[in-house]
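INFO  loader      accepted 1 record
INFO  loader      residues=438
INFO  predictor   begin
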Amino acid sequence: MSTQTVCGSCTWALFAGPQVANGERYRAAITPTGMDGRAGGTVETGSARPAALSASIPANDDALDRAIEDVGNRPAFRGSPDQAGLAVSMADGKLIVGLADNQRYTAHAADIARTGSAAQVTVRPMKYSTATLQALSDRIAREARELRSGGIRVTSTSVNVLANKVTVEAIPATAATVDALAAEYGPDTLIVRGGQVHTRQAGNNPEGQPAPRIPSSLDMSWYGGIWVGDVPGSGDCTAGYIAVKKTGERYLTTAGHCYTVGTLVFDGAGTQIGRVTEALDGHGDEADGALISLNSPDLATNQIIAQATSVWRNVTDEAERFVPGTRVCFSGAESNQQKCAFNANQGEIIFDDGTVQHDVSIAYNPQFPVDDYAPQGDSGAAVYRSLERDELRVYGITNGSAWYEDDDGTILTGGFYYSFTTNIQEHFGVTALTTPVP
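INFO  predictor   done
INFO  writer      dumping tokens
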């Protein structure tokens, strides 16, 4: 039996599954021991279930966001070959800062301690840097075809910050598979799991129904969250956010698998928005995104629909790094509601045809063990995190549903996957519009 202390003020806790053999079961229970009177709960699961957070964590933990920014801008972390990643603590909600355990560790840790958010941060020495583990994750993904020819099917790889290893989802997850991968890639660098990460792109909307997210013809403007389609008056996918190039040109973003370059795109009322100028569909790429030129760029705003039909929020910031454990949300036109999940991992997805989408960001919500968390038509919606009441930080563009199954095919947790902002920036040369247009 193992126990883990949870802070009395926390509204969530993360418990890693014990190391048990595939097929065995374990039981985990949460029992209140303090004066807060929270009820205990029991859950039974298998060893393949990914660790995930309860959906009750606040969406706008400003202290945590400030800590992420403070640490990310320190010399010991920003651009340093010794940084080993950021993640949210399992027990107390603090930010875990991983630093390579070498001769520079003491100086780096002291640098992190000088941040204004030091009380919110815990520094940990790690054997491997993020660069080392990411290179290994990329290598395994590149060699997935070769591994499959040898009887091992790898479905995804990702860097596990807290474990300081690379997580590999492989079929079959037998002792022979573990031994073979350990012999090839190192015995102390991998976590091999037998469950499967599944993804499904969320466009296009089969019914093509535009209502209710249609810009008003009396007060026309372009913003994220509206229906977009390649037929006047239809709705295929969801608009993401307004993006800007260094030249000042403005574009409306969406998912790249929705349209090809040159496609004319309309809103739900049939008004032409513009034409797709650049697109990547995610297969063999590091992003699934597209840019739609604006026939009337002066109508662009830095707003997106962040909850249901009539709730707008201002985009005022853009995320720079993926941090496991932070809650992110999207509000697709088909769902027409805000849906949230917790960043779980960022890595490579190997599709059935052998192509790889790199740097895929996945967020899970354990309260919804479903395979359609982002239904058809939600593709392209902005992924965001609340900063203040009317402000949002964008994290990327929704690509589709993600879910995790055990060896028996039982869905353990559902969620969505998305293209992160840094990948959109790198491949399209744009940043999010974060100021109102005069």
